[in-house]
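Good morning C.,

I know you're traveling, so I'll keep this short. The sequence:
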Amino acid sequence: MEFTAAVIGAGAWGSALAQSIALSEKSVQLWCYESATYKSIQKNRTSPYLPDLQLAETVEVTKSLKEAATQSKTLFLAIPAQYYTEILSQLNSHITDDHTLVICSKGFRPSDGALLSDVAQEVMTAKPKIAVLTGPAFAMELAAGKPCMLAVSAKDEQTIQHIDQIISYAKIRLYHNHDIIGAQIGAALKNLIAIAAGIADAMELGESVRAAIICRGLRETERFAKAYGGQGETIFGLAGLGDAILTASSKTSRNYEFGYQLGNGFTREEALQRVDGYVEGVHTARIVTTQALSQGIDLAIFSAVDGIIQGDVSAHKVIEFLLQRPRTHELD
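The tokens, ready to paste straight into the viewer:
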């Protein structure tokens, strides 16, 4: 059987994305790694990650990566960044030049900080088309049928139009650009903005400070993106600004909640135990700080966040340090 697409990863975001594709009258496969998730969807049409979502009948669950890749030419990769090399290596022998891989994850490869698009190109023997799907959307809201706006990034217009046809669900409005580097960096670094905002809110520093963190965090994100070939305007679009506003102001965001726990004085390990799910920003903070140091990029807020995560400095000392930094032009 030929499917319109396959979603690799049946967590909350992967399940919501598969549902959205199915609701535009398309057939989609949903690849599950966990047996409990697979059995739950098979038996009850529900995912443990989104228990209130009744998956459409046109969503077919599978535990076979080979089946997903051979029966669909478009794969949406909704797995944590740390598993990209492993999963793509398993997919490699089944991927052809006719495939399209859509990166839906937000982060870098933990071992070396590589962009996920670079990981795909490194691992794949064939040369599939690469795209990136980003933007401000909580899985539970998308699954509930609430409207959202996303951005698809790809180097060529044909790939963009192809994805636009697949994600034609009426509740999703897609925008597009050709900046896959900026899109990935904006999507990843917004997690650090969310952690910083959570820390500040826990310390009751006020909504004015949160707004400043978002603004200056985006400037640091732009600085980092440009250093790696991304475009500044992408950072102030849906992938950066849009997602940062969403995740930096809601406890629904795991990264915000993790930061909130840090701001209340808990250690990294204690904070992680109090957050339900994987916190991508923990790895991102270390990667970005290390790369910024090697490249001479000034990222004061993100470096401070990493210092708090690592336990090298207290949140109170960080605030004191940031306020005492030399005053500069806003666009520097």
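Safe travels,
E.
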